[in-house]
Amino acid sequence: MHDELLQLEGHFSNSNGGSSSVVSSLEDDGWETVGPKNKTAITRMQSFVPSELSAIFGGQLRSTVKARGSKASATIQPFLLLHLDIFPHAVHSIEDALRLFSTPETLDGCRPSAAAKVGVVSASKSVKIETLSKIMILHLMRFGYESKGSTKLHKPVYFPLELVLGRELLASPFAEGRKYQLVAMISHHGRESSKGHYTADTRHPDGYWLRFDDATVRAIDINKVLHDQAYALSSTNKFRYLTPV
Known about the structure:
Elements: H1 2-8, E1 31-34, E2 40-45, H2 52-57, E3 59-67, E4 72-79, E5 82-84, H3 94-102, E6 105-110, E7 121-131, E8 135-140, E9 143-146, E10 149-152, E11 162-165, E12 178-189, E13 197-203, E14 209-213, E15 216-220, H4 222-225, E16 230-240
Parallel strand pairs: 2-4, 5-8
Antiparallel strand pairs: 1-2, 3-4, 3-7, 6-7, 8-16, 9-10, 11-12, 12-13, 12-16, 13-14, 14-15
EC number: 3.4.19.12
Keywords: Hydrolase, Protease, Thiol protease, Ubl conjugation pathway
Enzyme class: hydrolase
């Protein structure tokens, strides 16, 4: 949809049938930024060619790599949705998946910049939210791809009607947390990833919920919305949440 909006607006053409990049290339030279405790990092930026879609669903992530013997390297890149890994045993809820999303991971065999005087070292990589979107889409990674083909993960993952994104998920230590309200959800019905059926539940402005099932639209109880097999969640950040100091 983002590609198609840009084509309609004349930003680029795609006559060969291939997919066109909607993200600008990385700048050759980053700039040095000063973060918490006066620690510096070489920061590079990626950005969307903006559309009406990215104005609603678009945000930014800050990916930071730290290695011994060199300055930290940070990349700010855009997103339209957050992909959440729900496979690990420790993930039982959306909150668990978000914590895992922002937990630093170890990178083996990392080679720092040419200016560094060390060889291959271990490094850590962390991802935080730099800029929150107006409407946040969370994609639960229920489909996997292996040598034998695709599979579907039927693991229960719980989520609330109101989700708090705390400061620990945000790149800036001075940013306030945000409270998002669930407004829509997509579910995949079926045991296999290659088969099944999709439905969408949406919150009406008057507060009740509707289920869209092909040509059928009907009101449903909130208990049917809050099931544990969601595939994608959409929430709006109408509410501000102040984290206690």
